[in-house]
Amino acid sequence: MRFLRLWVTLEVRRRWRSLAALALVVAFALAAVLAAVAGSRRGASALERLRAVTLPADVQVLNQDPAFDYGLVRELPGVAASFSWPISRLVVDGAGLFWNSVPLAGSEVWRTIERPVVLDGRLPDPSRADEVVVLPRFAERYGKGVGDRVDILLSTPEEVDLLADSTSLYVSRPTGPVVHARIVGLIRSPYFTDPPGDETILLPSPGLFQRYRANFLGLEHRIFSAGLVRLTDPSPAGVAAFRKVVGAQPWGGRTKLDDLSAGRRHINQLLAYEASALLALALAAFAAAVLMTAQFVARLAGASLADLGTLRASGLTPRLSVAAAALPPVMATAVGAVAGGVGAAVASLWMPVGGAASFEPRPGLDVDWTVLAPGVVAPPLLVALGAAMYALVAAGRTPTVPARSAVTALARRLSLPVPVLTGLRFALERGHGRTVLPVRSALLGAVAGVLGVLAAFTFSTGVSDSVAEPARFGQSHDFLLFVGDNGHGLAPERLLPVLAKVRDVVSADDARVTTAGSAGLTFPVFGMERFGARPLPVTVQTGERPTSPGEIMLGVATAQTLHATVGRSITVNGPLGAQRFTVSGIGFVPQGPANLYTEGALTTSDGYRRLFSSYEIDMALVALRPGADRAGAMERLYAAADAVRGDAPVSFNPFITPAQYWEVQGIRALPIALGGFLALLALATTAHTLATAVRRRQHEIAVLRALGLTKIQARWIVVVQGTALAVVGLAFGVPLGLALGRLLWRRVAEQTPVLFVPPAPTAALLLIAPLALLAANLLGAWPARVAARLRVAQILRAE
Q: Of the candidates 583, 569, 581, which has an alpha carbon nearest to the alpha carbon of residue 607?
């Protein structure tokens, strides 16, 4: 032990820079790996941990009868708690609010259902009209938190009645009372979370609705409401039983029930994807760490063994020699591991990332000992084992004939120039003894780098294509116009033909929507009628759009719930009776105020009239020609509508953006980060290999120089070596990266869902080869300079 202590002291004094570098490499790499793994675990479980402490709602209820009493829902068997809110606008001066910012009603909200996590402050007093809570993004975007004041602009009762007859939910700035409210809390619950995109949410106390009821419902009470229900049995069987109970009520046929577990499954899939991407990033960081640490340890242990060899004659045993060589790098690794564990714990302040951040119930510092404890203990043990094995192998190593590369053998038979042949040998043959090179790791790194970059660009191209084409989400219209609700509104026969004649308009369809049922499931049915030059395109995944009154297209989620396939016949129940329809296709429907683009059904106008004599919502969907000036087209549409609208206000709105549209954009960053990390790994490995080749094989270069190799030819050895590594990376990385990127995008497209179109990253395919070759040769510029300036006589004399 005395010898080991003395030897370690000597090694620390002699090689402190190398040992400090090893500790830093371990610290940074381990911090990245542990932070990514812990962040992955935290993000994947965020929603379920939030649900565990918030009494979440299980079912959303929507009945578009303004006279419907949601108290009837509360009295049904199996209901543990419920609350409702009117579908009326909430406006805050100077803030853009998401549609989930609603005037809440009832005494149970935030207490027996959707009881939120309070991130700061407190919940509002339910009897006060001037207290509100906000979600984190509101505070971040507008710089207003607990204690700050906001002005809530209320509509007059007359404006609310006007909105009920309006073709838009947003007509003008409200002119009713102004409520000077104070933000008392920052909250989060499973239903009330920051939406994808950049919109914000503010929620007033139920006291606001109680005090200003007429300012939300109007004088004629034409505004309908929606509600949330928490069941005593939230299992699928409990939800099915609740559907059955609702279906048996006199009002059940017009009541749409949304099982919130479907949305929860989608969110968990999104979080699982993000967690997988973080784990892949951790794996890439781990591979880089292992590569760099192994090279450090091998170099330090090898240098120590060379010095310890002179002490063998003095009685130094092989076992003690191995221990002395391994101990300094083990100690440096232990210091780096502790620092890395601390760094990972500090990094938890910014975890989780991506969509999971919107569901995290306890933001801030979170030490995951399940990850950190083994993560800190394992590296020193692994380095000790690796260093000892290296020392034992090095001590007993016997010379072997190195394997020859078939490529270099072919180059030799073709009598290629000496710089080319030597460069290929440096790139493809490992060598032996002191001339050994990390050839396999360099080749694998080059392939991984090209693969990662191309896969990331392929995936990103798929995201960009889908975002640029909202029709991939079923939203093939540019503008949406609310024509009426509950059977009251403008006659589409007067309005739509006029809009269809406006310049740049190619489609103008009337879409009447009413709730129907099939096999115990309620869903909206769209009746589409064409008024333009051609029908509005419909996004169909399988099959085709309906063309006859007996055909129907189902949304993908509705088809999955009904276990329906193309060609199957289903019974749909409407106010006019039960009708049989043949499923002509499965795809996406227009997203409306009461449905997602994946749920519902679409049929012809004649098919719609088989089920309904009126409508709950009537919408006009207008599509422009590609490349049309939207602002100019909107002005022309307003001018055309003014001629026929009478006293009814008209407002053209963009299509209702699905949440998945923003989610897809949000998940683009993680594959790009992983691809970038793999590219850096490839560059670092290539640079290390090129520099190491010149250093370890300087004797071979010196011999060639002595035999007549010029300085320029010596440079070409490194150029050929770098080019060979890049070519191998391109040969395997390009097809694998393209296939992997498409596979990942197909998986995401199916889970989102969005119409899958194979992405083709044309720019990346054209640029990756020249950029890879350029990068390899830039990395080899300094080693090539060193190779050209070797002191030939001094090297040969030393050998």
A: 581
